[in-house]
Amino acid sequence: MESKFEKKIEQTVEENTPENFGSIWGDFKLFLKKTLDIRNDTDKSGTIQDVKDNISMQGHTAWILVFSILIASIGLNANSAAVVIGAMLISPLMGPILGVGLSIGINDIDTLRRSLVNLGVMIGLSLITSFLFFKIPIFQELTPELEARTAPDVRDVFIAIAGGLALIIALSRRSKQTNTIAGVAIATALMPPLCTAGYGLAIWDLEYFFGAMFLFTINTIFIALAAFIIVKFLRFPMVKYINSAKRRRIAQLATFVAILVFGFSVYTFYGLYKKNSFEDIAKTFIEEMKANDISIIDEEDENINYQNNSIKLVLYGRNLTKDEIKQWETKLVEYGLPTTKLNIQQGADDSDLRAEVQNLSELYSRNQQIISSRDEKIKQSEDKIKVLEAELSKYYKVPFSQLSKEVKIYHQGLKSLKFSNVISTNFESTDTIAVFTTVWYDSIPNKDIQEANLKKFLKTSLDLDTLRVVRE
User: Fold this and answer.
1) Residue 98 · residue 56 · CB < 8 Å
2) 296: phi > 0 → left, psi -120 to 50 → alpha, else beta; which?
3) Are the folds of 44-239 and 400-471 the same?
4) How many angstroms separate the Cα of 16 from the Cα of each of 171, 242, 425?
5) Could you state, in chain order, the average pLDDT of each consecutive group of 10 residues for the chain (472 residues)?
């Protein structure tokens, strides 16, 4: 007879048969499909109509574009990211770009033509507006916000692809997500490159103009490509033509354009990826040189030149020998840059001068310590003087000069008057007594009475309880 424990083991084994594992895997795939599938909630006809409705760059839309470009230009000039973001939220730049991707995906040649025309109008209005703004002399300062939009890198490609996918998916829903559309407009940042291109034209710097336009083109192509991919994935209905031969030619043209755009996109992405990889490796190489006590100055991004496949370094301090330079060139091979040219520029060896400067710095530091020490001693001496003056003032509280003038007025028989403070003690306490010593003319009678009156006068004038008047 089987025990309960043995029955439980058999039940567990039966539950973990391959058939049950297959069922779990099927449930998991079904869960993934429900989670990630976007076909069921797609409004294909509504999406096509929404995209077509937003292609036009005429009338109200054109003026909204002009004012949003103006706001973005002001934000770039003021170096205010918040103003630029606000301009991107109100700009209608996405319409023609999505129209290009959609029309290629559904073989709609009329919509493609209309999208390209409006895209050209959009670019023209944007460049003219930003050009006129930046043509004003007080607005021609190059700010970090402007400089950041002069060249693309591989991250811009990923942002454009992800933004384009998010945008077309959000538009294809039966219930539109306006916050997604606004977020994509900010993330893909189509307006700042156009404003920067206008800035480049205004100051006649073609490098800025072409760099910014290249960044805008990259964003545009990958957003349109993302729209094309989703349209194909969701199997939007193809436009049908009465003339089958014409339909076939249009389909072939659309396919050719799509392949051309896709090929250019892949080529551009690969080029940007290689450029970013080269710059990252070069920066790591330079950091290793610094870690080996090699002093490098004038370190700028332009010194790492991907087009010329070169790294330019300006050294100061100890010069590198030919053997050391050759060792660093060999290091480039280890970093995966075997054909990169290392251009090291260094002047005369100034090691002795640097040592002298170091000695002078140390001497200056020691002198500063000595001066600080003297200042501290002077301060201590001044503090002691103040304490002594305070102590001394206790013994010279009597304004003797003024007092003597008053005494002479009331006691004309007084020949001379002396003053002193006498410290006395009875060995239990110590006290300071003001003592006035008098000398009277011989002709003055009743000197004792005169001295008594003088004593009263002095007590009253000095507000002292105890003082002594003695005759010399």
Assistant:
1) no
2) beta
3) no
4) 44, 59, 112
5) 51 52 68 67 74 80 86 83 78 81 79 85 88 84 75 72 76 61 61 84 85 82 81 76 64 67 70 80 81 70 76 74 78 78 69 64 80 80 75 60 76 80 78 82 78 80 78 80
Topology of the domain comprising 44-239: Glycerol uptake facilitator protein (1.20.1080)
How many angstroms from the chain centroid is the CA of residue 464?
74
Q: Give the pLDDT score at 178.
A: 54
Distance CA 35, CA 29 (A): 10
Name, in order, each residue with C-beta under 8 angstroms of 187's C-beta and a sequence gap of 6 or more.
159, 162, 163
**DSSP tag of 239:** P
Do 276 and 301 contact (CB within 8 A), yes or no?
Answer: no
Write the burial class of residue 195 (CB in 10 Å: 0-12 exposed, 13-18 middle, 19+ buried): buried
Quick one: which H or E segment has residue 295? none
The domain segmentation of the chain, as residue ranges, is 44-239, 279-346, 357-393, 400-471
Cα separation of 196 and 433, whole Å? 91
Cβ atoms 395, 419 nearer than 8 A:
no
Q: Which residue has the tokens 């105890």?
A: 466
SS3 content of the chain, % helix, strand, coil (to 5): 65, 10, 25
Phi and psi at residue 186, to the nearest 5°: -75, -45
Q: Is the pTM of this model over 0.90?
A: no
Question: How many CB atoms are located within 10 Å of the residue 233 CB?
Answer: 14
- Domain 400-471 in this protein, CATH class: alpha beta
Helix (H, G, I), strand (E, B) or coil at 416: strand
Rounded Cα gap, residues 315 and 293, in angstroms:
11
Q: How many CB atoms lie within 10 A of CB 57?
A: 23
Cβ(436)–Cβ(418) below 8 Å:
yes
- Asked if 471 and 451 count as a contact pair (C-beta separation under 8 A), the reply is yes
